[in-house]
Design brief:
By secondary structure, the chain is mostly helical. The protein is 61% helix and 4% strand.
């Protein structure tokens, strides 16, 4: 979802009503939405006071995802956009609370604006999160690598080593969908690595293309066929890298 301005005077009555119905602290929402700083387009990091960042963090952490709601997703997106503009690392844990629920490109942009300090938190989620959290964090980690330069950041040698360590661990995860997400994350980030680093990732992909255990068996015209989806994805990425 694309961010929309958050000034109370610029929000449609319908959208404001949805947020007020969604959130039990409606008076606080009205207060926030009418404050001059709450504008997703006109804001800069320089205008982000500590109080503002803390308020945004508390609001994001207060959203309940049981059950997930459309209004919750929309409101969290607006908060994430603001926290991204503030570029404050304190926002990272709060932004991680939306993993698997909302965000998409807004979360990628927010992490990229904050910078490489987002990587350790994403790595922790990939190591010990739920399946959906691991897959979401892998998506963000892959996109983050290529997006950092758009906001004046770059990956250090240590950042790249940490990311590669994450990939090495996740590509042998017990869940095949996490392994598939790892291959996609490598595909998204491959352009930021040097030749030596690419060789290490290539070895990783070569190994998984030969040995991944996930198998699908299908019967076609009375004959049973065997397909290895993860191996196929790794093989396709290897071809792309070697072109």
């Amino acid at each position: 979802m694309n961010p929309s301005p958050l000034r109370g005077s610029e929000l449609s009555p319908h959208y404001l009503e949805k947020l007020m119905r969604f959130y039990r602290g409606a008076p606080l929402i009205v207060f926030l939405l009418t404050m001059p700083f709450f504008n997703a387009y006109g804001d800069t990091a320089a205008s982000c006071t500590s109080q503002k960042v803390e308020t945004l963090i508390k609001e994001l952490e207060s959203i309940s995802w049981s059950p997930p709601t459309e209004a919750g997703g929309e409101y969290s997106a607006e908060l994430i956009a603001q926290l991204g503009e503030c570029r404050d690392p304190r926002a990272i844990p709060a932004i991680l609370t939306v993993l698997g629920h909302a965000g998409g490109s807004l979360v990628v942009d927010a992490f990229a604006k904050i910078g490489p300090s987002s990587i350790p938190a994403l790595a922790d989620k990939i190591k010990s999160g739920t399946k959906s959290e691991k897959m979401a964090a892998l998506f963000y980690l892959g996109k983050l690598s290529e997006k950092l330069s758009s906001f004046g950041h770059s990956l250090s040698t240590n950042n790249k080593k940490e990311t590669q360590t994450v990939f090495k661990r996740a590509i042998v995860d017990e869940d095949y969908e996490v392994r598939e997400s790892t291959i996609q994350a490598i595909s998204s980030s491959i352009g930021v690595y040097g030749e030596e680093e690419k060789r290490e990732l290539t070895k990783l992909l070569e190994s998984i293309s030969r040995s991944d255990p996930y198998v699908v068996r299908r019967s076609v015209a009375g004959k049973e066929g065997t397909i290895y989806p993860v191996r196929e994805k790794a093989t396709a990425l290897l071809k792309k890298i070697n072109q």
